[in-house]
């Protein structure tokens, strides 16, 4: 903590509503996953606080005419905000690292800078996307008009707090909306400071409102509020289902849901084994496997299974834990002791169901919540480590004989978020990318690039709609068909 206070402001206190901090009773402790120690506490916004944030958002839209400004004006304001995010990168990175699983050096060079890029990327849509003229009869005039929704509700997860906030705030504001956002109660502070910086940069106060709290109380109040016109959520499939139920019960509204995943990485015998090993490692080890597109199911052609398995075990054995505020980044902690207990419970259930621990399979002997990189073999499709989203540094290892068997193993009954494919055969790559049941497919690589134009989102129970890309901007505008008889 002493190192952090030299580069970041004091921990923000309260909700950020209408451009200022609103005090409320501290109700939820925030624990450092690196040490297990309490860092501070945050309030739990009830329905009244959420309503205050929604009213502040509506007032800001009306007084600033944000949705009716010349689009270039919105673009300029968002670019200034992105500039300030970059200038305040050390403070934002420290506020991210102090309570999350993100090493401060990774947050500084990665998460914060990516967030600024995302804000700029979506800002450019403000004056480049619009309606369209429609071919109709000679004596008619037809067109499609679009407009902002109004107030967008957003709920972000704990694994990448600031960049997930950028996913929601960038397209919503560029499209002319205001936002009421709830970050995870475990990682609240970088999002609060991000909102504070928006006002300093000249974004009208009240367009971004951050309310703190948990899912059952605060999240439910947001998703069920009649003044929220559209919802965007990133999190678990279970939470996404609960949100859908609450919206259906309290009033229909559009939603974007990026949910859980259990993504396969498929390696054929003709693949570059060194490249594949590097990508398989990168597909599960960053952030200790705590990311939605983690490649947690490794599927390998039998003729190369043994040497590739050895390469992976050697790589997995090199990881050592470190505090997220350490100057030298180490292996990330699991976000909480409860989550680490869940990870271990699934690993042990996998063993009872016939799985074999090839490496790892237990916590590090280290303060905080750190779990060893784990590889589990001898699993079938019904094994808990195959069926459950573990959200930790745990991957299963299965082999196949034929392309058809590989596709059968890759197809998950529940999830369809992402998939990886490793082969030198271009025809096979193109053929199988069409067959894989996933919203994103990577070939001879694994993981997102910084090409924000590529949308992300799941098939099956992995979600509805898209984040990033042109699709995310359009998801924050509603369309209206117009036909005029001349």
Which keywords apply here?
single chain; 486 residues; alpha/beta; Aldehyde Dehydrogenase, Chain A, domain 1; Aldehyde Dehydrogenase, Chain A, domain 2; 2 domains; six-stranded mixed sheet; disordered N terminus
Give a short synopsis of this structure.
The protein has 486 residues and is α/β, with parallel strands linked by helices. The chain contains 16 helices and 22 strands.
State the helix count. Answer: 16
Distance between the termini: 69 Å
Mean pLDDT: 96
Which structural class best describes the helix and strand composition? Answer: alpha/beta
Rg for CA atoms: 23 Å
**Share of residues in helices:** 25-40%
Specify the overall morphology: globular
Uncertain runs with pLDDT below 50, 5 residues or more? 1-6
What would the CATH topology of the largest domain be? Answer: Aldehyde Dehydrogenase, Chain A, domain 1
* Biggest sheet descriptor: 7 strands, mixed
Beta strand count:
22
When the domains are counted, the total is 2
CATH architecture of the largest domain: 3-Layer(aba) Sandwich
Strand order of the largest sheet: 14-15-16-13-12-18-19
The CATH superfamily name of the largest domain is: Aldehyde Dehydrogenase, Chain A, domain 1
State the CATH class of the largest domain.
Alpha Beta
Strand content: 15-25%
Task: Explain what you see.
The structure is a single chain. This protein is of the alpha/beta class. The chain folds into two domains: 281 residues, Aldehyde Dehydrogenase, Chain A, domain 1; 189 residues, Aldehyde Dehydrogenase, Chain A, domain 2 (3-Layer(aba) Sandwich). Helices cover 38% and strands 21% of the residues. The strands form six sheets. A seven-stranded mixed sheet has the order 14-15-16-13-12-18-19, sandwiched between helices. A six-stranded mixed sheet has the order 9-8-7-10-11-21, with helices on both faces. A three-stranded antiparallel sheet has the order 5-6-22, with no helix packed on it. It is globular, with a radius of gyration of 23 Å. The chain starts with a helix and ends with a strand.
